Amino acid sequence: MRVLIAILLLSSIGLSACSVGPNYTPPETPLPQTWQSALKQPELPDSRVLAEYWKNLKDPVLDQLIARALGDNLDLKQKLLRIDESFSLYRIERARFLPDFDGVATYERRRRSQGVASAISDQNNDFFSLGGALSWELDVLGRIRRLNESAYAEIEATVEDYHATQVTLIAEVALSYIRIRTIQSQIASTVENIRTQQESLGLARDRFRVGIAPELDVRQAESNLGTTEAALPELRIRLYQEQHRLAVLLGGFPENLEEIVENQNPLPEVAELSAKELPIDIVRQRPDVRRAERSLAAQHARIGAKKAELFPIVSLPGSFSFEALNSVHNAFNKKSLAFSIGPSVRWNIFDFGAVLNAVEVERARSKQLRVEHRKVVLTAVREVEDALVSLREQKVRARSLKKSVQASKKAAALVRSLYVSGLTDFQNVLDSEQRLFTQQISQANSRGLMVEAYISLYRALGGGWNPSKTTELISPERGDEPESSEPKKVEAKNSEREK
For the segment 432-451, what is each residue's pLDDT rounded down to a tens digit? Predict the structure, then answer.
């Protein structure tokens, strides 16, 4: 009875005691008052469309590619398996709350000394034992609770890492697709210019045959055509390389991609952005920022777990067994039962500062992660600002190049007409054609860069994941819920965080 009372008393102490170590509070990261580019770029994305922003481009092929990537991408599958691993690691820490029981069976053939044998009347005998050993660390100072807190924060960090990979994957698929369409547009412009320059070459040859144009016109036309034709192989190389890259993102081989991208669809138009103001703190919802904060929380909890080792560790060891000599049939009865149980205290009193320095190591790592979190936030703000500037300026560039291409087409047609009439030389025809070709390539590239800037903006804002999916990834079906399944901001007591 006294043993039972002692066990209950120690257990109650372990369950009610406060955890050693500092309680965690999320870092307060200062942000600028507004976007630097907001005054010149008042139209910012509405946060409600962040989750599926690519659908604003209204391109069914792009929608299909992203759907395939989300289902088949190998990086995303690895991150999902990493979540399963973190749940298993968390269950290991949860198991520390419960007793560890090991079954033990022993058979020994013994021979005792003659002095001992004379006291028990038998020098040789067989010893049989069947029972178990109990080991139970009582969480008096919260060491196990801190380890559980850290393990669950690691789960949340891996979930945010999954979301971060998803954000990157969607953006990379969209960017690769836009580059493919951009190159296809450049190839189409190149083929069109080759056709025009072939006509100019034929015109120069005809005029040379009748003696009204020098051979120099023919050779210059051939040189101009050859230069334009030489651009095609390089464009095709880039096209196929981008298709191969896209195939890897989709988790397949390039041959499975040809049917989707073989049709030369035009570049999608950039959707009109919402005029609503986007709050500056939207960057805090980026998965990489949330992952950095959860990693900091996990590391912070390890400080308390390590600090608890400075104090006595109370455990409840015990054992019981059925024992018998010479005959196993005599083992299973009340007289053969043997047991031992009682609290144990282990205290590392002299270790020459090893544990103290281990605590300082955990603190130093926590400080490093706090700095890393700040760095991630700064990088997030920079990426948004870069994307805003790029989108704004690429729009201006695209409008200017559109006007330039229209003017160059008219100029090329006018120069050719003047050449046929004998009012200008052939060099002006060549110059106008080269200028038109260069500007058409630049226009296609600019339109592609404008769409890429649009995608990069949403990527920088953390678009491409749905916060509601977090509930599915952290659910009772995937793993046991912690004591507080809804993490709250830590105030006076130990807890996780504010969602």
Answer: 999 999 999 999 999 999 99
pLDDT at residue 195 tops 90: yes
Q: Who contacts 353 (Cβ-Cβ below 8 Å, separation ≥6)?
A: none
| CATH code 2.20.200.10 region(s) in the chain | 100-135+313-346
Categorise residue 489: left if φ over 0, alpha if ψ from -120 to 50, beta otherwise: beta
* Rg of the chain on CA atoms, in Å: 37
Give Cα 478 distance to the centre of its chain: 19
Provide CATH 1.20.1600.10 ranges for the chain. Answer: 13-98+140-311+355-473
- Better-scored residue on pLDDT, 46 or 230: 230
Reading the block at residue 73, the tokens are 């991408």
**pLDDT score at 495:** 36
Identify the CATH number of the domain defined by range 100-135+313-346: 2.20.200.10
Q: Which fold would CATH assign to domain 13-98+140-311+355-473?
A: Outer membrane efflux proteins (OEP) (1.20.1600)
pLDDT at 315 over 90: no
pLDDT value of position 39: 37
Q: For residues 171 and 455, what is the distance between their CA atoms, to the nearest angstrom?
A: 6
Handedness of CA 375, 381, 386, 387 (dihedral sign): positive
pLDDT at 121: 59
Q: How confident is the model over 95-147, as pLDDT tens digits?
A: 888 888 877 777 676 666 655 555 555 666 666 677 778 788 888 888 889 99
**476 has pLDDT over 50:** no
Has this prediction a pTM greater than 0.90? no
Here the tokens at position 399 are 């409008």
